[in-house]
Design goal:
By secondary structure, this protein is α+β, with helices and mostly antiparallel strands. It has one domain (3-419). It contains 17 helices and six strands. The chain has helices at residues 3-21, 59-73, 84-87, 114-119, 124-129, 141-168, 171-179, 200-226, 240-269, 278-293, 298-318, 328-334, 337-346, 348-356, 362-366, 379-407, 413-416; strands at 31-37, 44-49, 52-58, 98-99, 105-106, 186-188. The protein has a four-stranded mixed β-sheet.
Length: 422
């Protein structure tokens, strides 16, 4: 990630901040600043120093999202096409990993480099992974790369809005009051609270509820910000329903990519689990999208429903590039000794697959339909679907309802409307 890329990212967040302050939720009285730190981990955070708020994002986050979506779109099946013979440059230096002084791998996720894979004649695995990957999106080098960077920007905007939501929803002040900590409280996404104190464990469950809120607000803001993008600038479309389908599908794919990449980072480097599961977080995204579209025109609603099914297919496919036996040596070298014992016992690939391979059956594609229509399923299917997708969100919503009065004291009343139906 060079200085130009960081400047572009900061420019995007200035645009997002200015746009947010013009929405009904904006608060121009809050001094919110943005910084990019040099950490190679996939991480972001926010903090309050006196009356000043700071949102931070690591270089690793920006690099990893670019790599993830470029790899997803530029796999050998689609990106190279007939140009395979001309795409190989044996003099070009390739390296999957760059380690910093803390022995963190940057980017700390293994991706296919399509040129390197072709040079080494290792394309068979890629062809098995992506039989229908991102089907329906435009083919051709320039279009695919443009879409990859668009998705990366959508993903970065969701991360930014997630941290902004922590600030606007009063989460920092709430945690400060609950933990009795000093002035400079910081939320880091890979850690419970960036300060050791005796109240951290008791606050871990509160953090799950706060992350649930931040995800909900971030998704709604992301949908609202990106809904005016002209998809036809990337591909000519005659069907307006398909246009909306690609737009909402892109948002689902982008946010889903953040959830999966962050989950792998959390499994390797995170100190505790203070989040809903990846399925719980993805449920929140899709539930928010469907609720958001209920007030739109019929063609947008239909496009959204098409997008949900296609987006889940994309997430199921793209998630596979984060699961590889080849990752084992590098992951083990980054783990603490206690975690190393756990991963050795269960197998790294098994742990990654259980947490990242979250769309792998017909049930994982069917469940969003139940948010819109009342289908009668057989008992066994319903039980499996509840366990995989519905039980956790139901429990979080119930507990959130019990805690909402306590949490909402730390934010403007207008923002409580975001959760009145949750």
């Amino acid at each position: 990630m060079d200085e130009l890329g960081i400047a572009d990212t900061k420019g995007l967040f200035h645009i997002l901040t200015d746009w947010f302050n013009r929405t009904e939720y904006g608060d121009k009285n809050k001094d919110v600043n943005f910084e990019v730190d040099n950490d190679s981990l996939f991480d972001a955070g926010c903090q309050k120093i006196k009356d000043k708020y700071i949102i931070t994002m690591s270089r690793g986050t920006i690099s990893c999202l670019d790599d993830f979506f470029l790899t997803s779109f530029t796999n050998p099946l689609y990106f190279l096409g007939s140009k395979k013979a001309y795409a190989i440059n044996p003099d070009f230096p390739f390296d999957f990993f760059i380690r910093n002084e803390h022995a963190h791998v940057s980017p700390h996720l293994r991706y296919f480099d399509y040129r390197r894979q072709l040079f080494l004649k290792r394309t068979d695995k890629a062809e098995r992974l992506w039989p229908f990957h991102f089907q329906g999106f435009p083919y051709g080098d320039e279009n695919r790369v443009n879409f990859a960077f668009l998705f990366s920007n959508i993903a970065l905007s969701w991360v930014f809005f997630h941290e902004l939501a922590h600030i606007q929803l009063g989460h920092l002040d709430y945690l400060k009051a609950k933990s009795k900590m000093g002035e400079n409280l910081k939320i880091k996404e890979l850690k419970t609270i960036e300060s050791a104190n005796e109240h951290s464990e008791s606050l871990a469950f509160d953090r799950i509820l706060l992350e649930w809120e931040a995800d909900a607000m971030a998704t709604r803001l992301t949908l609202k910000f990106w809904e005016t993008i002209d998809i036809t600038s990337f591909i000519d479309l005659e069907d307006s329903i398909l246009e909306y389908a690609l737009l909402w599908r892109g948002v689902i794919d982008a946010i889903g990519g953040v959830i999966l990449v962050f989950e792998k980072s959390r499994l390797i480097y995170g100190e505790s689990n203070i989040y809903p599961s990846p399925r719980g977080r993805l449920y929140q995204v899709i539930d928010t999208l469907i609720s958001y579209l209920q007030q739109k025109e019929k063609k947008e609603v239909l496009g959204g429903l098409v997008a949900v099914h296609s987006g889940l297919n994309d997430i199921g496919s793209s998630g596979q590039i984060l699961i590889s036996d080849d990752d084992a040596p590098d992951i083990l070298s980054c783990l603490k000794s206690t975690d190393r014992i756990f991963y050795n016992g269960y197998g790294i690939t098994s742990v990654l697959k259980r947490n990242i391979d979250i769309v792998n059956s017909e049930i994982d594609l069917l469940w969003p339909s139940l948010l819109v229509h009342n289908f009668v399923l057989n008992k066994e299917t319903q039980l499996i679907m509840n366990k995989r997708w519905f039980d956790e969100p139901k429990n979080i919503k119930q507990l959130h309802f019990q805690k909402i009065t306590e949490i909402q004291n730390f934010r403007p009343p207008l923002l409580n409307n975001l959760f009145s139906n949750k």
